[in-house]
Amino acid sequence: MKKAKHFAIVGAGIGGLTAAALLSDQGHQVSIYDQFDRPRPVGSGLVIQPVGQAVLDRIGAGDRARTLGNPIHRMLGFEADAGRKVLDVWYDRSGHGQTGLGIHRASLFDALFAAVRTRDVQFHPASRVMRAVPGTIHLDDGTTQGPFDLIIDGAGATSPLSPLQSRPLPYGAIWGTVDWPQTSLPLTQLSQCYRRADRMIGALPIGKLPGDDRQKAAIFWSMPRDQHDDWQKAGLAAWAAEATALWPDFAPFIAQITDADQMTMARYGHGTMRQPWSPGLVHIGDAAHRASPQLGQGANMALLDAMALSQALAVAEGDQALALYAKARRWHTLAYQVMSAVFTPQYQSDSRWLPVLRDRLLFPLSQLPPGPRLLSAIVSGTMLRPLGRFGYP
């Protein structure tokens, strides 16, 4: 039997909490360090894909997540001026198989945190990690913690431990959470509206927040990364007028936004570490790779990274285990990074010809066999074996 190790996890996010549960189940000692006074989520809604849901089930968080979240059967987008469909992806047209799971980050955090709390995992809140050397982490109060057999960086895109320098993407989005209103939009569908590629509006059903029985929606509005200040200065009335002119069905959603602070600006980057580890330190999730959320894979990637790392540590030790982890996730991560780089400019850019290519050629082709099945596999996260040699969760 392998000797139990002591692991430090930096960041109580999706990847960090998942890794904590998996490694604790293997008999290891796990300590989580998070900068907040108490662990908490940041952000609005997201979609957990089927392979990510399988990881949640492995740690006992799946049922709680599905109770709070909302099943997503379809992703549908149309062009505002012509009204034609330009995105149509079903998880399973029969409606009886796999689905996505729309969920608020607070609800996903609730499910993950509850699962971790059933394990013997040590939490260290209000602990801002500034740097790490093999076996030791250094906090902003000048103290050090350790020794650890391995430090796992799950601190996200702003991780102080990650050397990843991602390329800023020209477009981001503002996100907010509102109640699901009286609307003709299906409650099991991610609905989006586009004007060329310089405007994108979306409404994602995300289920309920902990302690709140009202159905929620995550709404988003695409904009260039440097135009948030201009949007705020223009005022909510101007935004509401433009958005509802493009997409009248968006009116009952945007009517609930009465303060600009209800919408949070998210800016995205694109990049992947060639080697997401060094002796005594390994990076998972956004600390290891970043991309546009266009394919809905961000949370999925963090869950799969945590799963692959735990599998690698179960069969090997030290640098060999970390190399196995990197190899297991290499091709799946690379494939989605490439697809994100190709697809994102078609929906978020100033290009005039890419939307024409999208609408007049790529979308019609995507609806011909085997296009629908391939699109389902892409969004489900199953186009390639997500854990490499370890297969599927």
From TrEMBL:
Gene Ontology MF: a single term: monooxygenase activity
Organism: Yoonia rhodophyticola
Pfam family for this entry, one: NAD_binding_8
Protein name: FAD-dependent oxidoreductase
UniProt KW Glycosyltransferase keyword: no
Domain FAD-binding: start-end pairs: 253-321
Transmembrane segments: none
UniProt keyword Repeat present: no
